[in-house]
Specification:
Strand order of the largest sheet: 3-9-8-5-6
Radius of gyration: 37 Å
Structural class: alpha+beta
Number of strands: 9
CATH topology of the largest domain: Coagulation Factor XIII, Chain A, domain 1
Number of domains: 2
Number of helices: 6
Oligomer: single chain
CATH class of the largest domain: Mainly Beta
Helix content: 25-40%
Strand content: 25-35%
Distance between the termini: 55 Å
Length: 308
């Protein structure tokens, strides 16, 4: 109908993008800490054991000094074990932050345990990350296959202007912007009528708040953003945002607020769809000399004739 105002729904698309991002992070960021069953490895980084590391006891990483890595490998298999590369890498929410490869020459015969200590230059790590980061030490064979791997909680003494810090600040700006826009729409009574659409509208800042808290806690050294922390935090803040949007009052906005009653009445068209009445109906006019509408040519005219 002409004059019907159609409201755009970009929030639905934005909500779909957020859900896609959540699915990618949750289901696509599976850790690759694989290892052969006949290999036992103990890893120590700057004096901190990988298995004993935690949020309160992380391995300290500095860009100004090399990191000392100690490996102890036990070969319980029947064939010789060769390790040529040790990869030290860190990631947050499945996103890689830093990666350093060190070349080693370590051969472990069957039923033998060997150890090696070597330095890893962490130059530039301060511009890539800051705070607690869950890292992994992976042992690679000459063919590039994973021999063994362990995760370790590290504390990177980096800068706030690092890639990790700037990413957290960008998420903070986007979260505040989406929240302000949602609150303005609530104050102006322009939120969607559908409750679930309003829930999606507030789900976006809720999801962003979870990311901001994750980055902030990690940068402050309170906890490492591992799956056990950030996943539950994201779920809680996202659900809270959806609940707030779902419980917001529906706006009482008329559908045709740009038109008055006279214009709306003028748009009403009466259509007579009865074919019998339409074929037999004829309109006459009382004006002299005006043609008669609806009379076929040659039919008798029943009107009175005035003779001068």
């Amino acid at each position: 109908m002409p004059g019907l105002r159609r409201r755009p729904r970009p929030v639905v698309l934005l909500g779909g993008l957020v859900l896609s991002a959540v699915a990618t992070v949750v289901f696509g960021a599976s850790p690759a800490w694989a290892a052969q069953s006949d290999v036992r490895v103990a890893i120590t980084v700057n004096g901190q054991g990988a298995l004993a590391s935690s949020d309160a006891r992380p391995a300290q990483l500095y860009s100004s000094s090399p990191t000392q890595v100690h490996l102890s490998i036990s070969n319980m298999g029947s064939s010789k074990l060769s390790v040529t590369t040790v990869r030290f890498e860190g990631s947050v929410l499945g996103l890689p932050l830093f990666s350093y490869d060190s070349t080693v020459d370590l051969s472990v015969p069957p039923d033998t345990t060997k150890s090696i200590t070597f330095p890893v230059s962490m130059t530039g790590i301060g511009t890539q990350a800051i705070g607690l980061v869950v890292a992994g030490v992976t042992l690679l064979s000459p063919s590039g296959a994973t021999v063994a791997s362990q995760s370790i909680v590290t504390n990177v003494h980096g800068e706030l202007t690092s890639i990790y810090g700037l990413f957290g600040l960008a998420v903070l700006v986007l979260t505040v912007s989406s929240l302000v826009l949602a609150l303005l729409a609530l104050a102006r009574h322009t939120l969607p009528q559908n409750r679930w659409q309003r829930a999606v509208r507030f789900m976006v800042p809720g999801f962003g708040a979870g990311l901001v808290l994750t980055f902030t806690m990690a940068a402050l050294g309170l906890y490492a953003p591992g799956p056990g922390h950030w996943l539950s935090l994201l779920v809680i803040t996202t659900c809270l945002g959806m609940a707030v949007g779902y419980l917001t009052p529906a706006p009482n906005e008329p559908e045709f607020d740009d038109y008055d009653d006279d214009v709306l009445l003028a748009q009403i068209v009466v259509v007579d769809d009865d074919p019998l009445q339409t074929a037999g109906a004829a309109r006459a006019t009382t004006d002299f000399g005006a043609p008669v509408v609806g009379r076929s040519e040659g039919a008798a005219d029943g009107r009175a004739t005035i003779v001068p």
